[in-house]
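Why does this matter for the project? Reviewers at the last site visit asked to see concrete outputs rather than summary tables. In response, this paragraph embeds two records directly. Each consists of the residue sequence and, immediately after it, the corresponding structure tokens. Nothing has been edited or filtered.
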Amino acid sequence: MRNGVYFDEFVGKAKEIAQDRAGTSAMGWVSAYANALHLQARLRATQAEVERSREDAKMLVILFWVGVFLVGYTYLFYPLMIWFIGALRPKKVLKGDIYPTITVVIPAYNEERSIGKTVLNKLECDYPPGKREVIVISDSSTDDTDQIVASLNHPDIHLVRQEPRQGKTAALNKAVGLAKGEVIVFSDANSLYGKGALQRLAANFADPHVGYVTGRMGYVNPDGSGIAESCGAYMEYENLLRALETRCGSIVGVDGGIDAIRRELYVEMDPDMLPDFVLPLSVVERGYRVVYEPNAIVAEDALSSTREEFRMRVRVILRALHATWCMRRMFNPFRHGFFSLQLLSHKLLRYSVPFLLILLFVLNGLMVHRGGFWVVAFTGQCALYGVAALGSALLRFRKKAPSVLFFPFYFVLVNYACLVAWVKFIRKKKQALWTPRTG
């Protein structure tokens, strides 16, 4: 407003000077007056342009801080929120010393390196004989997987072959249809359980409100690789979230290597669906809880190959995106209450982080000319991605380095895998088949 008054006063003075100089010449006065009006129009246009620039800058700042908040909320404020809610009104699980009949289902495709040890591991768990069985569902394996399982020659071990190859989810559908147990336990072909894992899982089903239980995944890092160490740290973060979510009611997403479900709650899924995501959501939808049992421990060898870890993350996230779309009705807060916010926070926002990171980098770059905070923030972002690039180079040449160099790289790798998965999802690509972990 003050600028507008200033412009008007300036133009008024210009008119007076023009009139004085024009004397009695009418044409001279008209010409001077026209020039003054033209100047006034130009000044007002400049003023409007300045105001628009200021509004655009304000919008960029607002968008930047919204992005910062969403990333911060996803990784920090959401865990703090569920910690506070769980501490305020914790929902306990009424565990009991029970031993329902259990069927352990192990889908396998060309797992000759680990299948024998994995199957025997389940029989070595502390659980009453006669109350457990193991079904190995071979998804048209072409190596010695089937022969190894058959050679174990144990009455509680059953081998089922799926022909033709259809993937893990179809294999689970078929195996559960043959299961006799009241509780179905899902294990990967390389998952080694702790001695008390089955009993710890079963104890949660003493609570009639519990329909699904997942255990604690721990990655073994025999090679001491940076990618495996970073994956282990990421898994510990996920385990912490699951412990906090359990105190609020139900968890969002499970491991797949050590899960258990009441037999009557299992629903058949499309072959391209992610069972580790769809099944727990279907259990919550039916009014049961999905909980985390930290004392049911499973160990798996972590991937030491960056390429294999990336491929695995893309596959899992792609299938999770399709599952999220399939189960989008779970985002309705009027039907599913606080769990809808959990699902939005833990999954959808997490999968949106790569877009937020790109947005933050671009917006920060546009604001660098302002100096001060914006230079510091942009330098920090560049440093993060620079350290990630250094970590990638060290991993490529298998060099030893402090973990601080590998964690930024793993953060970038996971979010890049998420971005690739989004592209595949938008292009309607699906992936039902899998290959054994080799890296």
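We now turn to the second protein, recorded in exactly the same manner.
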Amino acid sequence: MVDYKKSKHVNVLDFGADPTGTSDSATAIQNAIKSVAAVPGGGSVEIPSGIYLVSNDFIELKDRVEVYGHGFSTQIIGFNKDPKDVRDVDGDNIGCQGVFHMGSYDTYTGDMGTNTPMRFGVRDMFIRGANLDLLNPNIRKVFFEHQIKKGKHVADQYIPGNIAGIIVHTRFDIFNEPEAAPIISNVEIWDTAVGIAILGEHDRAMKVDKVRIRKTRRQGLLVGKPVGHAQRREERSNSGAADNKFVMVEVSDANLGGGYHGAIEVYGAQCKFVACTAWFAVRNKPDSDLYHTTNQYLRKSGAGWAVFGERNMFIGCTAQENGGHGWIVGFKDNQFMNCLGESSSYEDKITLRGAAHTDQAANWYISRNASGARLVAPRSANPKSDRQASRYGFYLENKLDDISIVAGSSRNARDGNKLDSNDDRHLFFKYDSSVPWRNFYIDINFKVMRTSLDSKIDSNKKDDIKF
């Protein structure tokens, strides 16, 4: 007989969890986690194949405890026992709770007390949200027949505004070595306010891999606290979530609430992203917000990637068929290698709603704040000749400094994939006579442009541009 007071590995069924999806398993799963957390060095909690309903306050992760399932046959469904009216916001000042969480959206945990958050994680499972009382047998019956049996999403109005898939938010007042180092692996998340939010100052050394996030009211993947968050009212405050690695993360159908959110938003620094994809983010904001002159965060509605952190690296990542810009390069010293921006503001009824229209966004929007950026072999593409998509391939703001784009490519099938264009579609420089252009090197479609300090780009001036 296993002594669960001493065991480093437990099964939630032994704590009364219900794998049939009939009753609420939140307390049973939480008790299993607490049992392992009480053992010196922690251990693992197994959630076997089945459907498990969990209600708020959902499941708190614990120090040195890894929770794992049996792949996508383990389904965890976070629901509201008392369904709330869904309230969408344009900004990032509304909290939510993770089905699995260490801390909350607004509040961190980790004061070196009873739950010192290190080496915890979630892997090998399917997490869903529902703004439905699934303890009601009639509602549960319909949910199982349509959403579970047929593998369908809930209707948009039943995607909760207060439930995230996974939230990690740690901070240590005393030095903790070597940071929290959580793991999120082989997880699929559907129908939540936010898919995964990594927010804490000590949520570092993370490994996030093989993750798919689909249908979120706000961001799919949020790396760091955005400006406007309860603990980051000003841009100069610490965003958290630095020094993490992300591999094969895919986000689709984000920003269903229509606010100023992108599919993947990066505010942390020195993170690495490999083979990650953002597509089908929704936009209902007008093009004036896409090119807003004073508030750069209004530009990210429906964006694939919004990069407002610095010194990050992106390798083989893509932004495809998003309602807003494909990529927003908003801060300095980021590196992009073999990345693609494709079919932004794509002509369809899925990603463009309200005041949003096709032929408005850019596949690459490079801000004047993106000094030191390096883009190696970036591609912009509108590959479908029968559909309108991005207005610009590469859109560059004035006052750029120390920018290098090498071996770039821009193609638009609607104009026959010509390498040159008379309407600035491939490469557009925003002009402002009061603000000088600074040093840059741009090589797109085999055309090389270089400039020194000047207020205007003029191909007739030898000191300004050289081909």
